[in-house]
What does this fold into?
Amino acid sequence: STQSTGGASEPMGLCGLETVCGRDVDTILRYKVNKQVLIRDARLGLLQYTLWVGVVVYVAVYQLAYDLKYLGTAAPTGNVRMSLLSPTRGNCSKDSAGARLLPENQCYDDLPDPTYLPYCCTECALNDTAADARGCNHSCTAARDARMGWPARPYTKFKCRPGDGLDALVRFESSALITTFANTRVQVQNASCLTNPSGCGKLWTWNESGSSSWFVPGIEQFSLVVDGSVQQEHLGISKAGLDMQGYLQLPGDHSTHDQLCSGFGASGKAFAPYSGTLCASPHALTEKTSSAPCCIQPNSTMIQNGRTGEWLKTNVDQFSLSTLLAAAGIDLEAVSFAGSGHSTRFEGVNLVLVIEYKNAWPWQGSKGNDVVSYQYKLKPQPHNPYQLEERIWNSYPANRTVLTRHGVYVDAQTAGLLSGFDFNTLLIQLTTSIALFKFAAVLVEILARFVMPLRAFYKHAIFETTPDFSPAEVINAMNRDELVDQAKRRRLPIPATLTDETNPDLIPLRYALLADGWEPDSAQSQPDTDSGHLITAVRKDDNEEPLLHPSNHGSGGGHDIVEVRTVGGHGA
It folds into this structure.
């Protein structure tokens, strides 16, 4: 291979190396590229460019800018700590000026009067010594219900025993049980089982005289404190609840949501979602609303600065249990499950509290570790009761009390997706866009070949038909000089691949001859064995007609010559 420089030819080569093992280095390291056909039709070109613009808009605008497909995502991990606060009287958190928290000795518990709670026994229990264990006398409770103007309650009533948050809450890792009903029964160990196990009936027997059952009055007014944190080690994200903003999502799929949004909207704590029903926002929500869907801003606990004494908000969320139950569509006074005969307050219920974290939003991209927000989503399991049994030793190992708790089991689950820039994800998205460009080209080609009015012409331009390779075996046996001679006779150009006489590439010339209609019978002069005439065949063009007639040249027994004339009158 050579290149021209100022009229002179110099070998191209590679770093001065022209051949490798006798072969041209440019031939060995040649670059292959597909040959394209340009169809001069503005309709096809406009269609292709329109599809390309559509691909660019889809990939760059929708998938990258809006849907953030260039970001790597990972599920967060987190932990949740929950506590329960009993209600207090009046505005206990601040004084009338709202400047400071009242001293602890001025914050009094706001305990409800059981007399005004329809599920509590009151005067009936005073005349019934067994009321602690099996509930109140129905005739007595019915009379009180009528006197109070309440509808008849179809479930058994029990005594109500006041308690605070520490009494009612049993805390687990990322979950908690809020007690609504409790029962204690005393068990005594059967001493005969120690000496005669085979003759023992039961190891433990119940002492019913020590049994007691009670509701926790006004549990709906207690407040659940939820303090969560989130981590994603791969993306370098770690946030505490103090540094994040969250809302309770009320999407409007339950009849109580409009009522809650209206109530919290009146106090300025219900906001329109950031988008659709999404409450996890990159900034604090400001647009107030009074209808569903809405985002409820939780109350916040406060801490006192140990140095200055100043009371500050902590951003640790606080919800009344009545709000959570209403948002989940749970009524503690409704029947628990078919066949129970008791209320949900008696049997208990499971409630999943999903904390969904987010740090990326359409058109804004990922905020990394700078901004992480979340939303609470409630998933109730209303017909799934919950109870927990605890063992309390009165006199080990012979006497114990079994405390059985029923209540609202809140299971906090960390969910959502956290995002960060990821080059591999971006590369995959760009590779997909290349496939879309190819699809657009294929679609235009299909239209050009099968739909467009000039499809026959387009198909002819797109496809190239090879010559008949039947004579290939014969033409492969011909040497360089024979091939060149045949090419000259047919007035074909000699390919540049024959310039290297030491190692010529004969394939292009052979292919050119086959494409020109070369046949083995036309490759040489063949004697006619019957007449002894010599017939010489020459090229016949599409506009030529061979005219054959014998003519004698010279004298005495010479050969007959076939003369071929073109239609235009030129002899050959």
Q: What stands out?
A: The CA atoms of residues 189 and 204 lie 5 Å apart. Residues 4-9, 95-100, 126-130, 525-572 have pLDDT under 50 and may be disordered. The longest strand covers residues 399-421. The radius of gyration is 47 Å.
